[in-house]
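If you are new to this repository, start here. Below is one unmodified record pulled from the training split, so you can see the exact layout before writing a loader.
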Amino acid sequence: MDVFNLRDSLIDEYATYISSFIRIRDRWIKRFVDQSLDNGLLWPDPLVQLNPSFEPGHTIPELVSEGVLHKSCADIFRRGKSDSSFGSPMRMHRHQEDAVRTARDGHNYILTTGTGSGKSLAYIIPIVDAVLRNGSGKGTQAIIVYPMNALANSQLGELEKFLCKGFPDGKGPVTFERYTGQESDVEKKRIMSHPPDILLTNYVMLELILTRPDERKTLVNAAQGLRFLVLDELHTYRGRQGADVAMLVRRTRQALHADHLQCVGTSATLTTGGTVEEQRAEIGRVASILFGDTIHPQHVIGETLRRATQEFNEQDAA
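And here is the target side for that same chain:
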């Protein structure tokens, strides 16, 4: 397949489709519109991007040997797991390892790294580790809040890969459920009757869980003393919506008597100005307002990159 010819073909077909709606009688206006369409007014130029190379950290088995993670994490978090393969040991990125160690010390933290940097594992691994240490089936120990159902659905698939594949009957040592409003009545009743260790939801449904009688009797009661509250994609919570979510976090903490709640947030970008230290201080300040709890600048974790190519020396080229 020639991707360039494919692009040109798609654009030509789209241009023909768009032009079929346009009937301009004035020849000057028609000439201007035709020139604008020919110059690519309705479609952008090709975009080429390179994925960054992240600094590697330790493997999951190495962190297990060190005592940072529960021993079962070595069986759960493996690369390439499938129905027919148990996969291979997973090596973490440096920022993922930093997040795991920060969580193990009991601190609130924010992970602010680029797209495709594995932000979800930076809170999933600590949550699963905590459930394994505390014991599964003792109520909901973590609530993960997504701004969109599409993100919750995607994360559900990731959890199924790690916590179901490779285990007898597809049942791993930690339970999880999605509760976002997409579920049928039968599914909702099943989840309420058997609350999971980890609950995936959105901020609208979390509000309903706190207010509707059926959910209060089941899901709210099951989540008393909540251990983890995660807000994914923090940069989406701005303005009035940000204020609403901030108040929701406070009501959640109060309703669940979460006196030792560990707050975690992720975001691709929250601030760009100033030095790295200034950015961390500002991110920590904003996140502290959102969570209603202190997040120190040293617990704002950014990505650590490494060079993918050798550094060019001008003297070598002389």
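Two things worth knowing about this chain: The mean pLDDT is 90. DSSP finds 13 helices and eleven strands in the chain.
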